[in-house]
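testing teh design pipeline on a random one, pls ignore if ur not involved
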């Protein structure tokens, strides 16, 4: 295979893992990575990737002339759109920034991709939009169903609302103009290279530095966790074999309360440092505004249609993740300084 891909946000957590997976599967392919190089990304996330296989362009996805030029010059087979503002707490303090990047940025990419598709329909195979399960809102303890591709949108935070808006734009470009699109909705990702502001890295780094671990509310919020490599495998499979114009939910089939996953990480540290009790560092704090109680994903569609299912065990994945962060404190400190 000798394809060309335009990936947005490739210096970020999930997208950098996707680029590595992509080039492992397709060593002759080429990636153009457009990344604004905000605090959330790091060029070191693509260490080991040859410049012959990946060109990173520092740019904003709102830069329509640049997007147009990249599409015309490189003529990618696929656009895989990861770039987004994602941290819910930040969306509460800066909602307009999220609307600008997640909604207007996606609209810009769609518009330029449509122009490119009309000019070169034989080149362009698809626009793959990476979204989140948070657009579906929240489940309650009484809910017997879980999120699937038919679940009604009900976003509760500026982050999830901006992602919902971008999803609707993507679908509209398929329905109105025939642009070949697919949308993925992933549950909570974890693994190496995730920004220290996120839950699992934050817990690991606070434990490493002997700092308290802030837990929102009672910590009983439920999330479905998936290892980032499993998510990227699913996205790759959907990209090549999914049905155009459709949506796919991706989850780890691993529902667990926030306090339980925090406790698991504390136990890993206890095993590493015998005689300690790291759970003593847990500190309950007032709950976050609009905090959703539960997310859970039904992955029946991708299992049935594409034969994909998650492969990583949570306990093993957490140990691997803890080890990575402890061995890469320079990276962690650099990411904190970038913010």
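output:
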């Amino acid at each position: 295979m000798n394809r060309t891909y335009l990936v947005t946000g490739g210096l970020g957590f999930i997208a950098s893992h996707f680029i590595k997976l992509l080039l492992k599967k397709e060593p002759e392919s080429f990636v153009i990575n457009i990344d604004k190089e905000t605090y959330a990304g790091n060029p070191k996330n693509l260490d080991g990737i040859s410049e012959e296989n990946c060109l990173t362009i520092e740019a904003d996805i709102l830069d329509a002339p640049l997007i147009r030029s990249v599409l015309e010059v490189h003529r990618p087979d696929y656009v895989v759109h990861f770039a987004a503002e994602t941290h819910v707490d930040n969306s509460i303090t800066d909602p307009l920034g999220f609307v600008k990047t997640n909604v207007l940025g996606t609209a810009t990419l769609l518009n330029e991709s449509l122009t490119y598709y009309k000019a070169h329909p034989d080149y362009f195979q698809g626009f793959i939009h990476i979204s989140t399960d948070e657009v579906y809102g929240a489940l309650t303890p009484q809910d017997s169903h879980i999120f699937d591709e038919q679940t009604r949108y009900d976003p509760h935070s500026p982050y999830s609302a901006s992602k919902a808006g971008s999803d609707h734009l993507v679908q509209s470009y398929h329905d109105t103009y025939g642009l070949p699109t697919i949308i993925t909705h992933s549950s909570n990702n974890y693994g190496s290279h995730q920004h220290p502001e996120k839950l699992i890295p934050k817990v690991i780094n606070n434990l490493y530095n002997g700092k308290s671990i802030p837990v929102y509310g009672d910590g009983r919020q439920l999330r479905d966790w998936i290892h980032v490599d499993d998510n990227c495998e699913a996205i790759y499979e959907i990209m090549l074999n999914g049905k155009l114009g459709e949506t796919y939910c991706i989850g780890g089939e691993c529902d667990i309360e926030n306090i339980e996953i925090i406790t698991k990480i504390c136990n890993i540290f206890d095993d590493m440092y015998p005689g300690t009790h790291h759970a003593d560092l847990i500190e309950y704090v007032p709950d976050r505004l609009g905090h959703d109680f539960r997310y859970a994903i039904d992955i029946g569609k991708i299992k049935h249609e594409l034969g994909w299912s998650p492969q990583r065990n949570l306990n093993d994945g957490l140990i691997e993740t803890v080890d990575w962060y402890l061995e890469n404190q320079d990276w962690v400190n650099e990411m904190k300084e970038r913010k």
